[in-house]
Amino acid sequence: MEATRLGKVVPGGRARPLASLPLLLGVALFTGLILYHGAAEVGAALAAAGAGLVLVALYHLLPIALDAIGWWCVLPAPGRPKIRTFVFARWVGYSVNGLLPVMQIGGNVARVRILMRGGVPGVRAVASTVVDVTTLVFSQVLFALLGVILLAARLGADTPAGPVLVGIALLGGFVLAQRRGFFGGLVRRFERVARVGDWLAASAEAIDAAVGELYQRRRAMAAATAWHLASWVVGAGEVWLALRFLGRPVDLATALLVESLGQVVRSSAFAVPGALGVQEAGYLVLGRTVALEPETSLALSLIQRVRDLILGLPGLLAWWLEEGRGRGARQMSGVEGEVTSECRP
Q: With pLDDT > 70 as the criterion, what percentage of the chain qualifies?
């Protein structure tokens, strides 16, 4: 009897739902934290935000747009789509990663497909996404350093630079691996499992070469990093705004501290869909540092969950419609090709 394992068919085997284990653990942690700190108290704190939930969600479109500009900077001008294509792709990628169990990979795949549909060759679309992720991670390391400095100033201690140095070392290894053909090897593995190459229509070696070429554009890399860093900083305004709606206003330095280190916690839990439970636990620890009540910290995290739904559900719908149009166009192209072939003398 056949059973599936992580999306693969294993003859004579048993189903091993390992892919859903992080989600189950996240749900358990999330539920436990809410119940422990009082679902009624957390609900009352969240209800205090009222219509502010929608405003916080709409505010998040600004960081998305800034990240899209950073990605736009990565590609050379000839043949580069307009910024609105990158904004749409960023929105869809955010929606996919935030609401689907894709371990932060599916959103990047969606971004590549939208860019290809915008006229960018597959090799360049993939390479630009890989490089964009690198500049995004590097800017996050800088933003985390800012959070560590603010935390040290609040605690009156020396800056614990160790975690930041580890992050920089990991990033350096990530970039070095890309330069040595890491992405090419990864694509080859995916081709054997999921036949990624069928829609990329590109060799792994060509993608590796394109990534290396993009890294040579130093000014573009610096500009992309700057735009991403601006997005992180602007994103702190979302925390500042949400806490005001929750009746616990803080200064901008506190908002920067919570946002920067909160994003580190969320990014570290990439295997858990939406960092469910992990984000809440991180906010509880950070909230205690900045004198926020547990119910307020959990309500702040839940506001971001509501934001993900308000922006993510329409994003998934837009992606579904976009894919539908793409399939329809390919089918029409095939029909036209058959008619042309049949009518040819």
A: 74
